[in-house]
Amino acid sequence: MLIRLGYDIQFEIPAPVAIVALVHVFPTRVPDLQEPDVLHLEPDVPVREFVDVFGNRCSRFLAPKGRIRLSTSTLIKDSGLPDVVPTDVRQLPVDELPAETLQFLLNSRYCEVDRLNHIASELFGHIPEGWDRVQAVCDWVHQKVTFGYFFARHTKTALDVYVERNGVCRDFQHLAITFCRCLNIPARYVTGYLGDIRIDLPPSPMDFSAWFEVYLEDRWWTCDARHNRPRVGRVLMAVGRDAADVAITTSFGQADLANFTVISDEVPEG
Amino acid sequence: MLIRLGYDIQFEIPAPVAIVALVHVFPTRVPDLQEPDVLHLEPDVPVREFVDVFGNRCSRFLAPKGRIRLSTSTLIKDSGLPDVVPTDVRQLPVDELPAETLQFLLNSRYCEVDRLNHIASELFGHIPEGWDRVQAVCDWVHQKVTFGYFFARHTKTALDVYVERNGVCRDFQHLAITFCRCLNIPARYVTGYLGDIRIDLPPSPMDFSAWFEVYLEDRWWTCDARHNRPRVGRVLMAVGRDAADVAITTSFGQADLANFTVISDEVPEG
Amino acid sequence: MLIRLGYDIQFEIPAPVAIVALVHVFPTRVPDLQEPDVLHLEPDVPVREFVDVFGNRCSRFLAPKGRIRLSTSTLIKDSGLPDVVPTDVRQLPVDELPAETLQFLLNSRYCEVDRLNHIASELFGHIPEGWDRVQAVCDWVHQKVTFGYFFARHTKTALDVYVERNGVCRDFQHLAITFCRCLNIPARYVTGYLGDIRIDLPPSPMDFSAWFEVYLEDRWWTCDARHNRPRVGRVLMAVGRDAADVAITTSFGQADLANFTVISDEVPEG
Amino acid sequence: MLIRLGYDIQFEIPAPVAIVALVHVFPTRVPDLQEPDVLHLEPDVPVREFVDVFGNRCSRFLAPKGRIRLSTSTLIKDSGLPDVVPTDVRQLPVDELPAETLQFLLNSRYCEVDRLNHIASELFGHIPEGWDRVQAVCDWVHQKVTFGYFFARHTKTALDVYVERNGVCRDFQHLAITFCRCLNIPARYVTGYLGDIRIDLPPSPMDFSAWFEVYLEDRWWTCDARHNRPRVGRVLMAVGRDAADVAITTSFGQADLANFTVISDEVPEG
């Protein structure tokens, strides 16, 4: 299966401002690319790349005054298979977890492990460990939280979502991630392209799509408390502790979003 | 100048629990050690070490049921010079900052950049950039916040400190760090030993001492909004985005603090 | 000057639910009514009236399953004069305030006096007491807070507004009220009709318009941090400590807003 | 049964400040007084009394610079019977509640009905209405929340208590009150003397004791989520929506607590 990926993000810049963008596919997906994955900038200012502590490919540049446009169009090969549902994988005791997964058990900006731990125990402490417990978390969040763009606000935390019971993609994942961490299951936030999704929204910088991953047995597994069913065509872009780490763009000064279009469409092969 | 360093931390463990401890001196200070810096455990359970994404030397072990004691005693050589006050260093525009400092401009659990940015601009936007601005942040926090152990709570964030105007060491630093980040100055949280400090406190896991560092011109500089004057004898242990990253001990289950003693005493040379 | 007042509020009711409505003009304006101020209900269920502790005329009824419509149309005589700007009135020391104004110095749901008092002193403590200080509060809130329906959420408090710097009418007033209380100036929340305003919005129950009053010298004076200039044609409906006390409608169970229209139009006399 | 009641509250006053004190027994208990219930002030500044909207007897005075002492000693007759446990009383539908009880269903400063309603439904929605449900609320709060003076902070709300699971008297009651209101049971906060209780604490202004009342069938009933068992010798002083309404003392400026002693002792009759 082939997926056409692309975005067109435009900002109005009142004064020169540094921007960091996480708009490339994650290194693990680079072998699947059928066309180059290049960030085009108009005007064509210099871009420097770096890899952050999570392994994400980041781009930084100085946006000049005026309109700036970030765009790409690329093609990626995908298995076309839905997310795996690993019903029989084992939850490792913390002591057996790989060291690099431990940071995904800790508090982060939007995932207040220290404030939700009592609640998580009460809701999920009786569910068998492992995938069952992760599934129970996703089911709970999916059923209890109402989706709506009107409910988005960029300071919303997992506790806010638990209390307010509404939000956008990222809010669903933040709450589920926090519950998992409270239960000693490493969980990390993911941004990426998700098939069928085409968003043309003017307001504030929206993540492409967000889901999360849990570490069980010997690897990370895809979870999605927003959709809560296996999906086809996810293309991972970046991972982090929560949305603070993997914002599509972070501007260190004023940058007013003027356009935001994301494309992720299946295209006929050959 | 020689400093005797040590700690004696004891927990009562109701059921086996994984613990991660950040109790070693930071790699940059290893050359100054005059005696080995070894984590002693009683009972003597196996310890595995790893280095986290911030370069901290971390120890992990499975604490068995019963009392467990973490302790060390070591000796370190110190310049005996007070913290440098770099009055003439330049604040780099974000675009010129080293890539690895950028994460210290972002939101983290206890440092809500996204909630304090308007406030930071209003309070410090008129101060000249660079060290003056950092000093103004430290002065403000030092003058406005009242120190007291009674005001400690482990979920307290920079915004809470701004509103409540009281706290312990870590709270002073969290607020100052957040202000710096809002002003596009990379700032990171530090734990360590601080000369003259001897704490024998029963209550909850306390950090040794906390201060912070800002990145100006070409390196990290020591700051301390709690004491707000140059000090002698700091021994850096760990750095992170905030206290969530560098807790002295993180236990993934119940562990009741039974003793907490830290020693940092100047000793005669030779 | 004559003003045609009216509203048409509709709810979809999934199961019978008790509703309290504060939709009448305040007792002080009853002498100005040129037509009766009657709450019409369709279907025509019985309404009982009561006066709450603030002197507001409240209506209560049991809404049956299905659509319910609350409406009125009435005519009121108004002076046509803009809000008075009492530049020379004196701020009474708390000890001289009438006892019944003291409750408007206290904390309430959306006005956290206990969390904003340090901030209020810093921002306004140097301004001369009395109207000047009130005006400084209104100026600050008016200039710093951005209006937008997208920013509305019913749990938003004064501290949230101070931090987020955006909101709707009620948010502007909540922040200004809280600052005034912090400065020992009694301040109360007001709902009412405001000339020129015609709102046809589907989303969630919106207050008609909101402003506030401060007690200086010997009476309550009208203030409005949202518009921050004298207006003509305010018709007071209800007063309280904050929006929690004077919601246009409070339903004690599910009631989905299906229509909300408010009319407040000047009409030719005679 | 006779109970000796008294208090000795002292403040250090840096500059003259208005104070309101709610230190008298509630009007319903006046007939039981065997000795006058007089507020003594040293120095003997004039006191004015007023009754607030909740029917509480309030005292106001201007405290001069220096030390001020509030004290009383009085004697009251008590039935000596424990709190009634009205297992068979009926919970009125909101539509049948007396109008004056409706305000005790609303949001207030420390009782965020709008943030805890989902949680209350999930925890208690399946329990039969009426006393059973109130008892379930008290049981839950009593079991889940840990008592400790170290956990006191005056800005702590019901949601904070739900999340942090610790607090003092008032915190237990705030959470239980909020749950009851979410369940459409009018609930109000109470301060008073409670037999066996003798507190000599230096820190911050503490309420004497706090409990709450719910309105079921035809009257208010005593509840106490802190002790959660019938007690003898409660002497009601004041009622309100939450602790903001009935602080023992409210000072409108700085007043540093220097002593706080409360006495409530059974004494032999005759």
Characterization of the model:
The structure is a homotetramer of 270-residue chains. Helices cover 17% and strands 34% of the residues of chain A. Chain A has 270 residues and is α+β, with helices and mostly antiparallel strands. Chain A is globular, with a radius of gyration of 19 Å. Chain A has helices spanning 113-124, 131-144, 158-164, 169-182; strands spanning 2-13, 17-21, 40-42, 48-51, 57-63, 66-77, 146-147, 166-167, 187-194, 199-200, 209-216, 219-223, 234-240, 249-251, 256-267. In chain A, the strands form 4 sheets. Chain A has a 5-stranded antiparallel β-sheet, with no helix packed on it. The first copy, chain A, starts with a strand and ends with a strand. In chain A, strand 7, helix 3 (158-164) and strand 8 form a beta-alpha-beta unit. The interface between A and B is medium-sized, with 34 and 33 residues.
Largest interface: A-B, 34 and 33 residues
User: How many whole angstroms does the radius of gyration of chain A measure?
Assistant: 19 Å
Please give the order of strands in the largest beta sheet of chain A: 3-6-1-15-10
Distance between the first and last residues' Cα of chain A = 10 Å
SSE succession of chain A: EEEEEEHHEHEHEEEEEEE
- Uncertain runs of chain A: 197-206
Q: What is the number of strand segments of chain A?
A: 15
The 3D shape of chain A can be described as globular
Assembly type: homotetramer
